Amino acid sequence: MDSAAHPARQRPASDVSSGVGLAGLAGLFVWIAVCRNWAGIAEALALPGPREPMSGPYASLATLLFTGLPMVAWSLLIDRVHHRASTGLDWSRKADVPLPVSITKIAGLWATWALIGFLYCVARWYWDGNYLFAMEVLGAALVPMIVLSVPYLMWLDRHMVQPRDHAWHFGAMLIGREAYEPAEVRAHLRSWAVKGFFIAFMISILPGGFAYVVTLDLSGITSDPVRLAGSMIEMLFVIDVQLAMVGYLVTFRPLDAHIRSANPHVAGWVAALICYPPFILMGDGGPLSYHYATADWAYWLADYPPLLWVWGAGLVFLTAMYAWATVIFGLRFSNLTYRGVITNGPYRFTRHPAYLSKNLFWWCATLPFLVTNDSPVDAIRNTVVMALVSAVYFWRAKTEEKHLLAEDAKYREYHAWMSENAAIPRLLARLGRIRAERGPVLQPAE
Predict the structure, then answer these.
(1) Cα→Cα distances 228→30, 223, 304, 309, Å
(2) pLDDT tens sequence across 224-260
(3) SS3 label, residue 261
């Protein structure tokens, strides 16, 4: 047997326990329940204000506290991540770091924020639509961030094994007083480019889904497969967005959630950014739009009620896999970064569960090969473009693997384990063996 000849290696332990994400999920559900039932709560407690669900944008922002605090508590109290060597901290060390070191680091951090703020100002898309809320939030957060960064960095420097980190090198470059490493400066700017770009985007999309879930009318929903599936899918997207937002914000060393490195490959950045506004290519009218003359699954299956239930359940399942892939990251979700290795949850079955489930969802929800204008050309075009979209995500996956394989021996071990033991590679290997045993399908003519 193959398993006897090649015994499976043990799957490497994940750097994040499942409990972190589950704690955040519990906090999220509690806050959504409070917001949905706020009218009754306010009435019972005789609180001032309107008697209606709390569905506004600031209620969606407050969700980050109810989601993030349980994850932080679990990480510190249960997993005790602050004692890990990977934090770069030694709590027994209380060195008197020279003040110029901390000042240089603070200067580098403040200059980084100033640069991000400048880019926000000159990029016009940040001052329109949903991004206006993001700019309002970030503007209000700026002064507290500046004030709190001073004691935080000076405290952290006392316990850091190597206080001269990426931010210090950037500050040293700007001040010009000490030698710095250009590679460290580039690493610093890449990491903050990720945060600056995705934090604004994530804040901008927080309110919409949250308001939908909080104000959702549940009457009669269980008798309508389309409405039920759509509502469950929206809730799962809220879970994904809220926990991912916490991941982008909470990049602190004591939580072992800091960005160790951002993807250094241009191809990785291109592959990721073309999937998000304002660079997105998949939107309506974009070169990779696959929606021309399409309807959706509910339209095409409307005459087959049993199939509506089955199809809707399948779409909910795919979305649940997508959300699970975010939840399992705990505090460490982020595009284009390395913040530890995740090997549990859906990552036991495939290295890229989010990309796989997302693309299968799009294929099954859109059915791009069916068009309302009966044009075979449009059907072919939509199908080919949808395939190109899936190819973009395959490209993203490969660029991410290239980054992580170069960064961490544990990821290389996980990558090798998955190649031998994950469900999809094993299925492909089995199909290959079956084909080899059966011999060539076409025999040469005699």
Answers:
(1) 21, 8, 16, 9
(2) 999 999 999 999 999 999 999 999 999 999 999 999 9
(3) strand
Whole-angstrom distance, CA of residue 15 vs CA of residue 342? 6
Q: How many CB atoms lie within 10 A of CB 283?
A: 12
Locate 92 and state its tokens.
């027994």
Determine the Cα–Cα distance for residues 51 and 70; give it in Å rounded to an integer: 28
Contacts of 203 (CB under 8 A, 6+ apart): 61, 133, 134, 137, 138, 245
Q: What sign has the CA pseudo-torsion 71, 131, 200, 231?
A: positive
Question: Domains, the chain, ranges and CATH?
Answer: 1-13+234-434 (1.20.120), 17-78 (no CATH), 96-160+164-215 (no CATH)
Q: Rounded to whole angstroms, how far apart are CA atoms 180 and 363?
A: 49
Cα atoms found within 13 Å of the Cα of residue 244, Cβ hemisphere only: 23
pTM over 0.90: yes
Tell whether the model's pLDDT for residue 290 goes beyond 50: yes
